[in-house]
Amino acid sequence: MNGLLKTCGAALLAVSAGLFLKERHRDLSAIVSVCAGVLIVSGATGAVEQIIGFIREVSSGCSVSEYVPALLKAAGFTILTEVSVGLCKATGEEGLARAVGFAGRCEIILISLPYVRELVGIALGMLNR
Description:
By secondary structure, the chain is an all-alpha fold. It is built from five helices and no strands.
């Protein structure tokens, strides 16, 4: 909770500084926004590490444990993509943001293809009985 309060406070300070600078120094405003975003995301890595550790601990020994690495990778790609899209949008690069979002979705689909192939094989096996 304390970390979230610090994060929200830092975000409000960055937004205030960005709004103040936006009228006179638009480029500097974008830099402040990007730097604040990077600092906030890097500050959340400790929480992410704890979440990943918990998921691995709970899933070890379960029948789904083979799927956990792919799920974690997909979640990581999703977070990375969303942060990158946000940074692109903050700097006014809407086209680049759409391209990054598309690339992120493609990577997530690519991660899931082996599991889709497995499900299709199971379904076909059930139909051929």
